[in-house]
Amino acid sequence: MSITSEHAFTPPKGGLRKALVDGAIVAKRNLIKIKRVPDLLVFSTISPIMFILLFGYVFGSAIKAPPGVSYREFLIPGVFVQTVIFGATTTGAGLADDIQKGIIDRFRSLPMARSAVLVGRTTSDVLNNVLVVVIMSVTGLAIGWRIRTSVGEALAGFLLLLLFAYAMSWIMAVVGLVVPSAEVVNNASFIVIFPLTFIANTFVPSNNLPTVLKVFAEWNPVSTVTQAARQLFGNTGSAPLPDHPWSLHHPVIYSLLWVVVILAVFVPLAVRQYKRAAAR
């Protein structure tokens, strides 16, 4: 798919501004692609809805939630985190697909910022995650999930989810630029992300895990983003936290540190790998 906007051929002067404007055009191109292939959005929302229903109604009665909170309220923030992480794989798969089909070569022929493809791809995937989270929120409200904090805290919870998803998109961007096809991206991502999201407090309290897995889960950023979302949504219950480490007592700070570290490491890596991939 080529970019039809005239701004793609006459970008404004200025490095940062040019990258942002060109990135917005690429993001629009990616969103139009989703509009023309709605199956991409449909299947990205069916999976989290299935997890909500399965764990909420099938496994919920067998899993003990912390005191003062229902299991469904405990569950929904964890499903949010799992969903936005899996949604980030769209970045890697999309880049791998563009390279395989020669779209990147077309972008190279245009007078556009080199970082625009990466900025546009990660931005469009975050916007896609926004829609998925909205649909999931409606599903959660329908089965009994409630936000018990202020509007500002709730918005901060959703913003943290999207920030973490944006950081994960840059990791997936590096993967997509390294592996040969979108299918390989999906398979490789599944092998890593699936255990990462389950060895955490996403679906069960980390205290229920064996000692080694418990320690890993307590410092796993997936757990801390989930715990931060629960705090900001008011889904932590009335009982104080047991003997948890610093990461779970300060989940918002710890999660934001992970976001900063991931972006600091993987944005330059993605840009460097994009230059190599575009030069093949």
Characterization of this structure:
The chain has 11 helices and no strands. The protein is mainly α and 280 residues long. It has one domain. The radius of gyration is 20 Å and the shape is elongated. It starts with 14 loop residues before the first helix and ends with a helix.
Q: Short summary of the structure?
A:
The protein contains 11 helices and no strands.
Helix and strand layout, with pairings?
Blueprint: H1 15-36, H2 39-59, H3 71-101, H4 103-108, H5 116-142, H6 151-178, H7 182-198, H8 211-219, H9 221-233, H10 246-249, H11 251-278
Low-pLDDT ranges: 1-14
What distance separates the N and C termini?
20 Å
- The number of helical elements comes to 11
Task: Estimate the helix proportion, in percent.
Answer: over 70%
Strand content: under 5%
**What string, H for helix and E for strand, traces the elements in order?**
HHHHHHHHHHH
Structural class: mainly alpha
Q: Give the count of structural domains.
A: 1
The radius of gyration over CA amounts to 20 Å
Total E-strand runs: 0
Keywords:
disordered N terminus; 280 residues; elongated; single chain
